[in-house]
Write a structure and sequence with these properties.
Phosphorylase Kinase, domain 1; Transferase(Phosphotransferase), domain 1; 3 domains; 3-stranded antiparallel β-sheet; 11 helices; 17 strands; Serine/threonine protein kinase; ATP-binding; Ser/Thr_kinase_AS; nucleotide-binding
Length: about 475
């Protein structure tokens, strides 16, 4: 059954030369559609179209276009082809091959953990994909079972907009991003992030694949983060050389982890060669470029395995999600077809034949935050732009520019998020988040909360925050 749902009245029927046949899903930056080409070539493709409300935001448009370029930068032999890109009605879009297959997350949930040759193939395939990403000077930053698809031609690694290029002029340390159960210590600590973070996540994913359970567990997200920072991983039934490699990848210090290419070399070595093969840490081959940000692959760049290593692969069961979510989409359930396009599915029924057990976790991308004035048009979700709980004002006080217009307690995040259609809102050590019904954490732009709280000031912005007084809002 196709991994998409029927088009809604507001959906386009064509994008560029492609005929739209269904909606795969909606995410923070755009909507992903299933489409076909001309009569001569009716191959299904995935088309991601920037949200209309973002098309007039220069930063959002620029970020989206940078992601397109980053998607094209990954070595062609290891990626699902970027079919094309363009602009329609001032809205940029990117077209990629469509991947039809379950995620590792879904596979392990349905069939259990894998061992032996299947696990070795999975390890080699995904490490090969990461090596290709890193050769293009891109860091994935959200590698996990949900971001690996088992396509008909083999497993592929997909990205949901969190990936960063190493060549931009922006800092990568502005926010904590990723999925807590698969985050490296440096991500949690908000330190500079480079390729070693992907190797840490790869190690955790392999452990999960081998055991059907996460290597670090706790009852709360802060507890999971603390376990990653200070605890020892539970590698369970993971054995042999793969266990040794995973242990190295899970070193707390990123400089002590191997590179993806070193992992590939170790996995490809014949048993007789293992005694002489050394696996130096990333400390000896550290990138001299400073990691910097351009969100890569908004279209969900899919990194294929260079060809061969397909079949019986695995995934995790449990609670991960994949939205790099900075747009207002209160409820997202991941399905494999949605994953192929790097987006949250339009409906839980998009792939009814597969189990979807993921729940989301804190993540961000370069897209808009929940401060955006628009939200999904689904009839069963609140419309953030028309929320009745939004404070109203009939006139604008004559407050001079750049002066304080009021303060908000930290608890304001919860009613703000609820007014936007989210299940709740909370403030963690690394910032405020809206929380979806599937437990996905979406970072909040506090400037937008100021404008929501003080609607008479459409250009209000946040000035400062302290634990006693809360947030201070300024007129702009």
């Amino acid at each position: 059954m196709p991994g998409w749902v029927e088009l809604q009245p507001e959906d386009p029927r064509a994008i560029g030369p492609f005929t739209i046949v269904g909606r795969i899903g909606i995410g923070g930056q755009g909507t992903v559609y299933a489409a076909t080409g001309t009569e001569a070539d009716d191959t299904t493709v995935a088309v991601k179209l920037l949200h209309a409300h973002l098309s007039f935001e220069e930063k959002a448009r620029t970020r989206f276009l940078r992601e397109v370029e980053a998607a094209k930068a990954v070595e062609g032999s290891c990626t699902v082809q970027v079919v094309g890109s363009g602009v329609q009605s001032q809205r940029p879009y990117i077209v990629t091959q469509y991947v039809d297959g379950p995620s590792l997350q879904e596979s392990v949930a349905a069939d259990g953990a894998h061992t032996g040759e299947a696990l070795e193939r999975l390890a080699l395939s995904t490490a090969t994909a990461l090596a290709a990403i890193h050769r293009a000077d891109i860091v994935h930053r959200d590698f996990k079972p949900a971001n690996v698809l088992l396509g008909p031609d083999g497993p592929v690694v997909i990205d949901f907009g969190i990936a960063r290029a190493l060549t931009s002029s922006f800092s990568t340390t502005s926010q904590v991003v990723g999925s807590p159960s698969y985050m490296a210590p440096e991500q949690i600590s908000n330190d500079p992030i480079g390729p070693p973070a992907d190797l840490f996540a790869w190690g955790l994913t392999m452990a999960y694949a081998a055991n059907g359970a996460k290597a670090f567990t706790a009852e709360t997200i802060p507890g999971i983060m603390q376990a990653i920072l200070t605890g020892a991983p539970d590698l369970g039934d993971l054995t042999g050389r793969l266990r040794t490699i995973v242990e190295r990848c899970l070193a707390k210090d990123p400089a002590d982890r191997p590179t993806a290419e070193q992992v590939v070399a170790e996995l490809q070595a014949k048993p007789n060669d293992l005694g002489s093969l050394t696996m130096p840490s990333a400390r000896k081959v550290r990138h001299v470029r400073r990691p910097v940000v351009i969100t890569a692959v908004a279209a969900g760049v899919v990194l294929a395995l260079c060809g061969v290593l397909a079949t019986d692969l695995i995934t995790s069961s449990g609670h991960d999600d994949k939205n790099k979510a900075d747009g207002p989409h209160p409820e997202s359930v991941t399905t494999s077809s949605a994953a192929a396009a790097g987006i949250a599915p339009a409906s839980p029924s998009a792939s009814p034949s597969r189990k979807t057990t993921e729940q989301s976790t804190p993540s961000t991308s370069g897209g808009p935050t929940p401060g955006s004035s628009s939200s999904p048009k689904s009839s069963d979700k609140p419309s953030p732009g028309k929320s009745s709980s939004r404070p109203k004002s009939s006139h604008k006080p004559s407050t001079p520019k750049g002066t304080t217009i009021g303060t908000m307690p930290y608890t304001v995040v919860d009613p703000y998020c609820r007014s936007r259609g989210y299940a709740s809102g909370t403030t963690l050590a690394n910032g405020p988040f809206c929380v979806t019904k599937s437990n996905q954490f979406v970072p909040v732009n506090m400037d937008s909360v100021c404008r929501w709280k003080f609607p008479a000031y459409p250009n209000a912005r946040i000035l400062s925050y302290n634990s006693v007084g809360g947030w201070t809002c300024l007129s702009s």
